[in-house]
Design brief:
With 286 residues, the chain is mainly beta. It folds into two domains: 63-166, Immunoglobulin-like; 181-285, Immunoglobulin-like (Sandwich), CATH 2.60.40.10. It has two helices and 21 strands.
Length: 286
Amino acid sequence: MSIVFRLGVFVAGLVAVFAAAVGVGRATGPVGPIGPAEPARHVAHAAAAHDHAAGDELPGGLATSQDGYTLVLDQTTYRPGTRELAFRVEDDAGRPVTDYDVKHDKLLHLVVVRRDFSGFQHVHPTLDATGTWRVPVDLTPGAWRVLADFVPAGADGVVLGADVAVPGPTDPAPRTPPTRSATVDDYTVTLGSDLVAGEHSMLTLTVAQDGRPVIDLQPYLGAYGHLVALREGDLAYLHVHPEDGPAGPALEFGAEVPSAGRYHLYLDFEHDGVVRTAAFTTEASR
């Protein structure tokens, strides 16, 4: 075989490989990192995927649709003030879900939080026969996140999230520094432990009234306290489980957070017939 002939075969092979590569590139599209102009929802989904890939349970509330269920708000823009929030949970066929299992004494828990954490409400909507949930909420101008925590009948629990906009002049609240104590009315709640990313952490919160330990807390949502944890940035909703124990002053919760960083904690507790909420900011270490 002559050198000229072999060279011709080699060049023809290179042309074929190049043509195949171009075809694959056109079929798959460009590949590259997320740029600054990429929508925020893509960044949040990337963070969630990273947590999931690392072996952690995917945090709740990062998606509007998950596990065959979709959170559908009647409207996504509200005027400031007390407004009725209406929504449905639909299955993968677009049918409203009307059958739920009870979780912590309620069919559905709704958390409405402003994205700068300057507003927080934990409420329990009413379900009508059409599968629509309704509840009044107090909204100030700004960006809000709605988080629905529920268990469809016979299925696993799901937490879905959606955004709500409230137009009007607003100044973002300054970033809250880590706090060890919170005061609400004449009660002081103290956080006595820390979160560790990727590990099961025990959080201890101690309740006092006018400096005296409270030992007669009343059950609320099936326990002597209910704790919500939200990750700063994407507002991922973390599951926190109350431990059995006395009616105060110390309450214990088991928590698992997937990443280091700042978390906002909201403790609901009932005493003398009134439910109060104590808010904390804490850092999870690696």
